[in-house]
Every structure is written in C-alpha cells, then in structure tokens.
C-alpha cells in the first residue's frame, strides 16, 4: 500500500531536542543508499520509492560531491567518511531491521513518511519539495512504540476525524497494516486491514491496549 504525499501539514515526530531536521537531496540519498547492501539496500530503495535506474555511478558521485561541499562527508586519505546527519542516515539504512510506512489521512489530504528502525538507531524520513527528504532522529529515550503512539495522538489532536496508517515489515515478515482513528469517548477505532475502505475494525480500544499493540507491531526481530 503506497501513499503519495500531498500538500497537507507535515508529520510531527518526537525528535531528539539536540538534533535538528536535516534535509537531503535526491542524489545525496542515493549516495546514502549505496552504502548499504543486501536486503537493507533493497528495502531502502523500495520504501523511499527510488527507481533502480536512478542509482547510477554518476548520480551517486554527484550526491557525494554535494555532501562533501555541505560538510556531511569528509575525505581521510582514500576513504570517505559520513559526518553529521549523513552518518546517522547511512547507519540507519545499513543496519535497519524494520521499515514502516506512515500515512496521515486527513481532510487536507494525505501526508506520507517512512520510519526506519535499527537496533541502536531509528530515524524518521519525510519527503519534501523537489524530491528532497527531511531526516529526524528518534530521541534515544523514546521507544519505537512510543514514537508511533505520539504520532497517532498528535494527528488526532490536529485532525479529530483523521486516520493514522502504519504499514510495517521486516526482512522476513510480510507487511502488517494498522489503521487508527480517535473516537469521541477517548478510545480508539483500530483496524488491521490493508485497505482504508475496508470497514472491518474494532471500536473502544483503550490507549493502554493500543500501546501494547504498538509494542508488538514495532518489535524488532531477534538478532
């Protein structure tokens, strides 16, 4: 299930207050993806919706050149070393174990994002203008489940009739789907269906039960 971003309000992730939002261009993201291998590289290409034909040596070199000029990449001898936000982006993509597609479906349209979870680092990526991506790093003390719960609650506050969607998968599991909508009585309507038009759902889910569901939903596979 793929959502395209519209001009709706951006997602508000609970970021580490010590880290600002870092923006990367398309070629810069291509360079970061090129540092990954195997399933991590394939999942990054899929979830970031990068065309395989775009990942040419020329594009990757242009990305590296741009990153070098911006101080996100340094050269030590014959080795290029990521710095700053690029170091975090590359590390997350290279060690990721769970990939989660996010969509906030509201009266203003649909806002899409990607959440990448690794054992020691989780990042939030949101598409922006001109094929750029904005990166926010999850605060270390915030769990992945808390991250998702805060996005649900934040969206419900701003858009009481809106829906939050998560589509998550690991290297070995099929994609699991979860739709959440706030109810007027303070509980939640929850559905684990693939299509937003599927009417099968459970009403009256408490915040505590929903959070327990998110803990299982966001759990990383055993190493």
Provide a brief overview of the structure:
This protein is of the alpha+beta class. Helices cover 32% and strands 28% of the residues.
What would you note in describing this structure?
The protein has 223 residues and is α+β, with helices and mostly antiparallel strands. It has one domain (22-218). The protein is 32% helix and 28% strand. It is built from 6 helices and 11 strands. The protein has helices spanning 26-34, 38-47, 57-69, 84-95, 144-158, 207-218; strands spanning 22-24, 73-76, 79-82, 98-106, 109-117, 122-127, 133-137, 163-170, 176-182, 188-191, 202-205. The strands form 2 sheets. The protein has a 9-stranded antiparallel beta sheet, sandwiched between helices. The protein has a two-stranded antiparallel ribbon with strand order 2-3. A hairpin with a 2-residue loop joins strand 2 (73-76) and strand 3. Helix 1 (26-34) packs across helix 3. It is elongated and about 60 Å long. The two termini are 28 Å apart.
Which characteristics define this entry?
elongated; two-stranded antiparallel ribbon; 28% strand; nine-stranded antiparallel sheet; 223 residues; alpha+beta; single chain
**What is the overall silhouette?**
elongated
Mean pLDDT: 89
**Structural class, from secondary structure content?**
alpha+beta
Number of strands: 11
Largest sheet: number of strands, sense, barrel closure: 9 strands, antiparallel
């Amino acid at each position: 299930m793929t959502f395209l971003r519209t001009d709706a309000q951006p997602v508000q992730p609970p970021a580490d207050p010590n880290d600002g939002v870092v923006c990367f261009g398309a070629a810069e993201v291509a360079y970061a993806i090129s540092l990954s291998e195997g399933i991590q590289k394939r999942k990054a290409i899929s979830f970031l919706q990068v065309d395989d034909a775009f990942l040419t040596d020329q594009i990757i070199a242009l990305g590296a050149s741009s990153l070098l000029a911006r101080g996100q990449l340094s050269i030590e001898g014959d080795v290029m070393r990521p710095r700053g936000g690029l170091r975090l982006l590359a590390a997350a993509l290279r060690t990721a174990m769970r990939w989660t597609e996010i969509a906030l479906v509201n009266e203003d349209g649909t806002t899409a994002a990607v959440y990448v979870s690794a054992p020691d680092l989780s990042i939030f990526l949101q598409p922006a203008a001109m094929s750029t991506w904005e990166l926010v790093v999850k605060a270390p003390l915030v769990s992945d489940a808390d991250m998702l719960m805060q996005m649900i609650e934040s969206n419900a506050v701003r858009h009481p009739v809106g829906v939050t969607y998560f589509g998550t998968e690991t290297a070995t599991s099929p994609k699991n789907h979860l739709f959440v909508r706030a109810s007027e009585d303070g509980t939640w309507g929850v559905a684990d269906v693939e299509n937003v038009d599927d009417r099968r759902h459970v009403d009256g889910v408490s915040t505590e039960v929903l959070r327990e569901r998110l803990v299982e939903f966001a759990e990383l596979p055993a190493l």
